[in-house]
Specification:
Layout lengths: L11 H40 L6 E2 L11 E10 L4 E5 L3 E5 L4 E9 L5 E10 L7 E5 L6 E3 L4 E10 L14 E10 L4 H10 L4
Parallel strand pairs: 1-7, 2-10
Antiparallel strand pairs: 2-4, 3-5, 5-9, 6-8, 6-10, 7-9
């Protein structure tokens, strides 16, 4: 005689199905959040460049039509991360009128015995000034490749929007700092490693 089976409590199957559905929904929400986080990176970058949030400098298509007699001193800061480069500004600072277009020149020397490609990230301090600091041309807009033992000059064409003088958060500033940091270009690392490995030895 087979042992009798204890009947399952009423509603147990329904509860199991409910738990399974909840688990599926939670997994879908988690994956959606992860996907949204990755998608938000370029959107956040575009937002920063459009608004100057966090000191991010925005790109301009043309210079302003107005220059006002309100001077601002722009200082330049340069850094490198994980690169055998020497990176310096040819001028430590520039004094300009708001709306005036200026050119700042930077110098990069690649101290390695093979070409290296890198990209510069940038910001302005204080952060509030980022909304008004505009670049017309800049080496930071694309990857830069510097040959072995080569020294190159990299110009930046920029201006500070005259609205800087009207904003309650910036109108009392007399000095701002434009900072650049060069990092190895992610896509260029394999090619650079291969070039270094195949370079003939003396």
């Amino acid at each position: 005689m087979s042992p009798s089976r204890t009947p399952e409590p009423p509603g147990l199957d329904r509860q199991l199905r409910r738990n399974r559905n909840v688990a599926i929904v939670c997994a879908a929400v988690f994956l959606g959040m992860v996907g949204a986080a990755f998608a938000a990176v370029p959107a956040y970058r575009a937002f920063c460049q459009a608004t100057g949030y966090g000191g991010t400098v925005s790109r301009a298509e043309r210079a302003p039509d107005t220059v006002i007699d309100r001077q601002l001193t722009v200082s330049f800061d340069t850094n490198v991360r994980d690169l055998p480069w020497t990176f310096t500004p040819e001028q430590r600072s520039q004094t300009m009128n708001l709306g005036e277009t200026k050119i700042a020149v930077f110098k990069v020397t690649n101290n390695a015995d093979h070409p290296i490609t890198a990209r510069a990230l940038f910001n302005v301090a204080p952060d509030q000034a980022g909304a008004y600091f505009r670049k017309l041309q800049c080496f930071c807009f694309s990857d830069q490749t510097v040959g072995a033992r080569q020294t190159v000059e990299m110009p930046v064409l920029y201006f500070v929007d005259p609205k800087f003088a009207q904003d309650i958060n910036t109108r009392n500033f007399t000095d701002v700092t434009l900072s650049y940091t060069f990092f190895p270009a992610v896509d260029a690392k394999p090619q650079q490693a291969a070039a270094a490995a195949t370079k003939p030895k003396a």
